């Protein structure tokens, strides 16, 4: 019987427990399916520091190479370093990571040439269907292969009448080129000296930060830079305030100008100020958006997802830009970036997207913008970002539920009849009034509902947040 991959193929990536839900044999089939769906002659692959990542990456590479595809293997890398390689080499890419998930998880983030996203509707569904079909004992993978294969591979797949040429697998190192590209996009040569604490969470930030920061006027204080996919110190998920505690403490101890926290695959970056207080990703989005607008003559489109603060579209408009609201998720943001020609995009989860980075997300480039903005003036970070912290927000609150759709329906039933609110189902359910809003949406990777609320004052936010949570957790 064919495998059912519905539990691990998500809206915009593959993610699940290893080896319970997927393993190297499935990874090899994913490589073959990726080769077929993209029609690529060559691809680039990389992986994070999880114990299962090298084996899964090698299996995926074998699957692609067996179909005549040449594979460039860049080894240990951050997700945005893989996107850099996809863009610079103009090749489809595969990044093996489960981002912030616990150690037993792993996954694949896929992209077409130029870091263009692969998600549901852009190839991931077709990849899943092929892998499921090929796991059926009675299926003939060779029968599926041919119509979309690279032109040089006119023969059926290995094991049939005529084998295609075997693709090559070569190793390459892109770290220095990645770092040079980022530094070319943000000028930090004239900033005042800064002390920055960086918590890599034993993730890929420990691999990329030393090279990116080399030669800059920064005193780097590293925390947990040792690559360790078992995450011995804390989860590599800075969205959870518990995982910022060590960074906050260290910033205060050394009197640093700021702190940076990266997630496991180092594509997201969270910021704390000189007091050790977290800076909202919405404030960072507004700050970077204004800098990108200035670089583009005070004009341009800026994407923000629907759970960023009201302050983001306000700041964009105040600085001559055009804000565009979209749903949450990197494949959706990237598609809207390409469609609208946006110069920048930001999410509440600390994903930041740049036109000059192939519309892909890179927390490292956002961090360089923050360093440049802070080092280009005399005041502390808390004062610099105060302008973009205009409202009271709840942050993202996760609730484990057994019936995501049922709980959202209950909220809709509670607020739908009210004349003072509007309902929006662009992504989950957004309930808005003149003085507040909240959004509830299901996680694509876990049995969770995610709540974000904002209001013009703390008291109103607390009331609205608690009302929504009572329904969600009923």
From TrEMBL:
Alpha-D-phosphohexomutase C-terminal domain mapped to chain residues: 396-469
EC number: 5.4.2.8
Record's keyword terms, sorted: Isomerase, Magnesium, Metal-binding, Phosphoprotein
Low complexity: compositionally biased ranges: 140-149, 156-165
Class of the enzyme per the UniProt entry, highest EC level: isomerase
Region annotated Disordered, chain positions: 138-169
GO molecular function, one term: phosphomannomutase activity
Cofactor requirements of the protein: Mg(2+)
UniProt cross-references to InterPro entries, sorted A to Z: A-D-PHexomutase_a/b/a-I, A-D-PHexomutase_a/b/a-I/II/III, A-D-PHexomutase_a/b/a-II, A-D-PHexomutase_a/b/a-III, A-D-PHexomutase_C, A-D-PHexomutase_C_sf, Alpha-D-phosphohexomutase_SF
Residue intervals of the Alpha-D-phosphohexomutase alpha/beta/alpha domain: 7-135, 177-276, 286-391
Top-rank taxon: Bacteria
One of the Pfam families matching this protein, by short name: PGM_PMM_IV
CDD domains on file: PMM_PGM
Family to which this protein belongs: Belongs to the phosphohexose mutase family.
Name by which UniProt lists this protein: Phosphomannomutase
């Amino acid at each position: 019987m064919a495998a059912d991959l519905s539990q691990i193929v998500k809206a915009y990536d593959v993610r699940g427990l290893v080896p319970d839900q997927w393993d190297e044999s499935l990874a090899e089939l994913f490589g073959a399916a990726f080769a077929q769906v993209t029609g690529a002659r060559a691809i680039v692959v990389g992986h994070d520091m999880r114990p299962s990542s090298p084996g899964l990456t090698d299996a995926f590479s074998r699957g692609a190479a067996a179909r005549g595809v040449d594979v460039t293997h860049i080894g240990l890398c951050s997700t945005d370093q893989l996107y850099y390689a996809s863009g610079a080499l103009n090749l489809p890419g595969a990044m093996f990571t489960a981002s912030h998930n616990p150690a037993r998880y792993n996954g694949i983030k896929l992209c077409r040439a130029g870091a263009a996203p692969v998600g549901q509707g852009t190839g991931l569904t077709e990849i899943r269907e092929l892998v499921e079909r090929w796991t059926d004992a009675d299926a003939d993978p060779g029968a599926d292969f041919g119509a979309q294969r690279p032109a040089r591979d006119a023969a059926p797949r290995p094991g049939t009448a005529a084998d295609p040429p075997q693709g090559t697998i070569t190793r390459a190192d892109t770290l220095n080129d990645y770092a040079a590209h980022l530094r070319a996009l943000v000028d930090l040569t004239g900033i005042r000296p800064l002390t920055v604490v960086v918590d890599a969470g034993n993730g890929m930030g420990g691999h990329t930060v030393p090279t990116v920061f080399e030669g800059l006027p920064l005193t780097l204080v590293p925390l947990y830079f040792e690559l360790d996919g078992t995450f011995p110190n804390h989860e590599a998920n800075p969205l959870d305030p518990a995982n910022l505690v060590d960074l906050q403490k260290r910033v205060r101890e050394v009197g640093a100008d700021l702190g940076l926290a990266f997630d496991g695959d180092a594509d997201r970056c969270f910021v704390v100020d000189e007091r050790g207080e977290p800076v909202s990703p919405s404030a960072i989005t507004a700050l970077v958006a204004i800098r990108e607008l200035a670089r583009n003559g005070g004009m341009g489109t800026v994407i923000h997802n629907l759970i960023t603060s009201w302050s983001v579209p306000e700041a964009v408009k105040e600085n001559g830009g055009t804000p565009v609201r979209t749903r949450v998720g990197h494949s959706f943001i990237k598609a809207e970036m390409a469609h609208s020609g946006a110069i920048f995009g930001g999410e509440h989860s600390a994903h930041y997207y740049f036109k000059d980075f192939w519309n892909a997300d890179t927390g490292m480039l956002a961090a360089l913008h923050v360093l440049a903005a802070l080092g280009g003036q005399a005041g502390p970070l808390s004062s610099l970002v105060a302008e973009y912290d205009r409202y009271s927000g709840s942050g993202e609150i996760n609730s484990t539920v057994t019936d995501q759709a049922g709980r959202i329906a209950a909220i809709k039933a509670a607020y739908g009849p009210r004349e003072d609110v509007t309902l929006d189902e662009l992504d989950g359910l957004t309930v808005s009034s003149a003085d507040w809003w909240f959004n509830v949406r299901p996680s694509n990777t876990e049995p969770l509902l995610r709540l974000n609320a904002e209001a013009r004052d703390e008291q109103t936010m607390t009331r609205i947040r608690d009302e929504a949570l009572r329904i969600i957790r009923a």
